[in-house]
Amino acid sequence: TSPLAWLRTRFYYLLIRLYFDQEFSIEEFTRGAKQAFSVVSKLLSQRKLDLLDELVSAEVLQVLKEKISLLPDNHRDALAADIDAIMYTTEGDVRIYYDDDGIKFVSILMRFWYLNGANLPDEVPGETKVFQIVFGDESTKEKRHLLTANYEFQREFTEGAKPDWTITRIEHPRLLE
To answer: Which residue ranges form the domains of the chain, and what is each CATH number?
Structure first.
């Protein structure tokens, strides 16, 4: 990311600690986000959407139900991310919202790069190259794809609200469109 974006996100983390949650830690949040991403992506892949009620917003869940039913099996398999297969994670946009009723929200967009062994073509729809990594020698090579996903986490910080983060956006570019 650019140095300006890095500074901006660090400033927002400071605001979150000062005004919303004095114990907030981006390292701890990232660990939890990786775990949530792994669990949710596996449940999506297995079409177990009824188990996502507490993790994903109702609006996102409704859209996912429509999209998952139309996915080919290889694309659905490619959604699953084992936590050990997550190669890189970075935070994207961080936002602080106040609505007209005084309700306070924080949202953090997380970007994940993960390896997946799904049987995908070299080129996926939309003319985007999927990176392939080959493990082993010629006789036992195993092809993996380096895929990306964007998950946005949102939490309400209004007094009396549950202290839970909810996923309010799920994007698996070129797989879940």
So the answer is: 3-171 (3.10.450)
- The residues, ordered by sequence, that sit 6+ positions from 60 with a Cβ below 8 Å of its Cβ are 167, 168, 169, 170
Tokens of 88: 């890189």
Report the C-alpha gap between 137 and 147 in whole angstroms: 23
Per-residue pLDDT of the chain (177 residues; tens, 9 = 90+): 688 988 999 999 999 999 999 999 999 999 999 999 999 999 999 999 999 998 999 999 999 999 998 999 999 999 999 999 999 999 989 999 998 888 999 999 999 999 988 887 765 444 344 555 566 665 556 678 889 999 999 999 998 889 899 999 999 998 887
Q: Which of 160, 153, 175 is nearest to 92 (CA)?
A: 153
Closest among 170, 176, 79, 77 to 125, alpha carbons compared: 176
Alpha-carbon gap, residue 4 to 168, rounded angstroms: 25
What is the reported pTM?
Answer: 0.87
Map residue 151 onto helix, strand or coil.
strand
Torsion angle of the four alpha carbons 55, 60, 63, 66, in this order, in degrees rounded to the nearest 10: 0
